[in-house]
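Handoff note, outgoing to incoming analyst
You'll be picking up this chain. Sequence as last confirmed:
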Amino acid sequence: MAIKLQILTEDPQEIALIERYWAVDVSGQYLEKVSDLGGLIEMAQGVSLASFIRQRCNAFDENQACPKCAELIEIRNRSEAKKVPARSPKLCAHCQKDQDAVALDTEKTKAAELERQLSEYARKQSTRTVDYSQIPDNLVLLLLALDRAITPRLTNGAFTVGDCRGLAPRYVGEFVLQLREAGLLLEDPTKARPGTYYWEGDEIWMLREQVVYRLAPDTASKSADELIRSLSDRVYTDAEGIFNLWLDYSVADVMRYLGAQCELYNHDLSEQELEEIKSTMRSALETYSVSQLWSVVWKVVRDAASLANREYYNRPKAAATIPGKIRRNLEKVKREAMELKAWSRPEQHPAGTLGMVLGEILGIDENTSGHLVSAVVTWLTGQACSPTFEAELHEPVRELMTIALAHDAGSAVMLRFAELIRAGHDVGFAIEEIGHALRS
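Most recent structure output, in case you need it:
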C-alpha cells in the first residue's frame, strides 16, 4: 500500500506527525496506532487526529484510481485506503465536481420544464367547466358528502385529501380520486407545496397527499349555494351506481374496524391479504350488513390471536390465516343459513359524512343488510315496480305457495321466510331455500 501525500503545512512538527500517521510497512500495515499519536502535538479540544491531519495534508491512495480519468483518489482517513489495487467506486474530486455541475444543470432544466408544464396544466384547468345536471347519481352523493366534510372549502376554496378525513372511515383518497377522474375536482398546482410534483425518469410524478384540489366550475355559472342546492334536489335513477357507492363506503367501514382490531392484537396484514379481505367483504356486503361483518371480523381476529400463542405458531403465521378464516366463516353461514350477530358501532369509529348522506337519502345505517339496501335503492330509483322485477318473482312464489299448502305448512313457511330475510338473505334466496327444504 502506498499513499501519496500533498503537505499543506510548513511546521516541521506537524509534517513529522503526518508522515508517521500514514507510514506503513512492506505488508501494508500502519506502523503506529492512532491512539499512540494523539498526544504528540497540541490540538484544539474536540478535534480528532484524522481531522487535524486532513486540514494539513491531502492524501491520495495509489491503489485507487478514478474510473473516469485515472487520477489517484483522495482519501480522508486510514480506513479508506486499499492494500491492493482496486477499481474505485467513486470519482476523483475534479471529475466529481464536473459531474455535479452537469447534474445541477440537468436539474435546473428539468425544474424549468416542470414549471412550464404545470403552468400549462393550470391554464387548461382554469377553462374547464362541468354540467352538474348530467353527472351520475353516485358522484352527486359523493359531492354532497364531501361538501359536509370540508364546508365551505369545497365550493369556496382549495383542499387536500388530508382535509377530507371526515368523508369516510377509510380509503378517503380513493373516493376523492373518483371525483378527480370524473373531472369534478381539478388540481391546482399553483397552491401546492414545493416538491408536490417532481420528475421520476422522464415522467412527472406527484405526492398524492399534497395535491391541492378545487371544485370544477359549473357550466351554467351557478353560485356555490345554488350548485349544492341543485345537487340536493336530485331525483335519483341509477340503482346500480348508488348501490356500488354504498358497497365502496361499507367496505371502508368494515376494513376500518378490521384495522383497529388487528392493531389491538398486533396482527400485521400484507397489502395482498388486505386486498383479499376487501374482495371477500365486498361480496358479503351484497347480503349482510356492516355490523354483521364487524362481528365476523371480531371473532376471526380473536381466533388468530389465540392461535398465535400455540406451539409451532407465531403472530405473522396467525395473522396470515385471517383472510381464509373470514372466507370460510362466511361460507359456513351461507351454507347453513345461519343468522349473524350484529355489533354496535365503536365510539372511536365515526361513520363519516358519506355514511350520513347515504343514511338520510336511503334511510339505512350500518345495521341494514345488503339485500335490504339493494331493495331500497331499487325502490328509490323507481325500478322496484318494473314488470321485469315482478315477473322474475311470480313463478317461484306461486310454486312455493303451492308446495306449502300441499304440505299444510303455510305458517311455518312464512315464519321461515321472515327469519331468512332478517338474517340478510334476499327474497330469491329465501324462496329457493324454503322450497328445497320442503322438497327434501
